[in-house]
Design goal:
mainly alpha, two-stranded antiparallel ribbon, two-stranded antiparallel sheet, 4 strands, globular
């Protein structure tokens, strides 16, 4: 019995991990099929117009200068300054910086991040739905559908940080916890000592609201509105 108690959690963890990997693979494969990626040159942006120029400029700034806030190659005679731009999307810029280490090309980074937004949205939606105790089949189907809502393609690379909306399901889960009056923290005393752990049912994630101050501000502001509504 002691051996079973040690083995079962490992099996459960492997099964859960396999579920998330399968969901991500399905979402990424479907995105590649829908967008016919095999015909594309990933160094050429999928969208080249309107606000996509702004995001490509920021990405190029991260590649050339290490971050997006200042760019000595723009804004003659001094430099471009973005410190007063009303956003703090540091999470996205960190992802951009990581992708730039793989290949320092603005078009490639933009395209890969947009493609990655499909499996990321599916995985976080699955985590949220499972956190709400939805069974595996409906949760997996719902997460795939969530990743392919028309809004995803409508925003596209023109508004890259809005189409990468993978944090929304986690924030929605937090709102539901608050609406139900369920605590984030629970106290357990496994050995007689008090210890705190994050309340994440069926999730191995930190508090999902922690990353939202570093997302594009629209979603955080709407989340605050809906939280007050509840």
């Amino acid at each position: 019995m002691a051996l079973q108690a040690k083995v079962m959690p490992v099996r459960g963890t492997c099964t859960t991990l396999l579920l998330y990997v399968l969901t991500a693979v399905i979402a990424l494969t479907a995105a590649c099929v829908v967008m016919k990626v095999w015909r594309a040159d990933l160094t050429v942006p999928f969208s080249y117009g309107h606000d996509s120029f702004v995001f490509l400029t920021w990405i190029k700034g991260v590649i050339d200068n290490g971050w997006w806030l200042t760019n000595p190659y723009l804004g003659s005679p001094l430099q471009a300054e973005m410190h007063d731009f009303p956003q703090n999307a540091s999470l996205h810029f960190l992802v951009v910086k990581g992708l730039a280490w793989v290949r320092p090309d603005a078009g490639f980074v933009c395209n890969v991040y947009f493609l990655a937004s499909f499996p990321l949205a599916a995985v976080t939606a699955l985590a949220a739905l499972r956190g709400m105790r939805m069974s595996v089949g409906p949760a997996m189907a719902g997460s795939i559908l969530y990743a392919f809502v028309p809004y995803h393609f409508w925003r596209g690379e023109t508004h890259l940080f809005l189409s990468t909306y993978y944090l929304i399901p986690l924030l929605g889960l937090v709102i539901i916890w608050l609406a139900r009056g369920e605590p984030f923290l629970v106290v357990r005393r496994p050995t007689g000592r008090i210890g705190l752990e994050l309340r994440t049912p069926r999730l191995s994630l930190p508090s999902p609201s922690a990353a939202h101050p570093f997302d594009f501000p629209y979603y955080s502001l709407f989340a605050a509105f809906f939280h007050k509504l509840y």
